[in-house]
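Review box. Two proteins, two foldings.
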Amino acid sequence: MPNLILIRHAESENNHLQANLVKQFKDDTTRINEEYDKLATRDPGLSETGKHQAERVAEYLAPLLTALGEHVLIVTSPMRRALQTVMPLVERVGLPRERVVAHVEMFEVGSPILTRERRPSQIAAQLEAEYPLHCRGVPSDERY
């Protein structure tokens, strides 16, 4: 029987930023949103907490994926936070490049940053050079 496991990205730098702004400005949502818009990045990586969370996910899921052997396919967003979340698992299991796919249509809906510019910061060649994966539909140039 096929297994489907869905994993949301770990805490991103933008998630961390927003949490800190909420602590700093309490109930002043206008100020929180203004500061977030100024400081948030389009394609953030993981915060230190997020990196720890990604390692924990890898630790937890690696035995399951190892047991499934060749029946594993990981499909991820080309966004940096998603890639950084899944890569510790990919490395721990030792998945070959052809079993990891970054798919162009896997984007967050409703993100204030992505609403303005809906694309990751890297193109297919950059992603494939940096991560052990194949890109599906990710453009080879800047035209998303």
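Next protein.
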Amino acid sequence: DHVGQARLASLTGISLMATWAWAGHAKSQRWPLLGVPVDITHHIAAALWIGPLAIVATTALTALAPGDLELVMRRMSTVAAGAVAVIVATGAIQTADSSAADPLLDDAHGRYLVAKIVLIAAMLGLANHHRTRLAAMFHADQQPASRVSTLRRSIVAEFAIGVAVFQGRD
């Protein structure tokens, strides 16, 4: 049954995300009972933002008709907006829970966090750029190859930045 398979896949995914939390710094923070579930939630939200970017860049842009692509992109945008809100909230909680009391720019971890924030801001800028390009494509009801190609490169760039941000140490 599909519901059982979806539940099993969700449980497996959450378990995999939990390995990062237990292997990373979340369990060593001041409040590990808060840090571990927050870290799991942070990684799930990141996956919900970055994963669909890969699908759109590799398949959806060329395989879907304009109306279907618009629907996919609107749904992806809604999920991504929620994911970004969760990433920001959980990142703030993780920073508050961190045992480091040094000012942000005085240690390597603080500088790393600032770099992540700058890269995420770049991703959000690209996402806004995508929304603008898509609106033009959908209003014209056409997908000229050059627009699709440019959009694909931009989405791949957003994906690459996301991978760089989220693969690094937390």
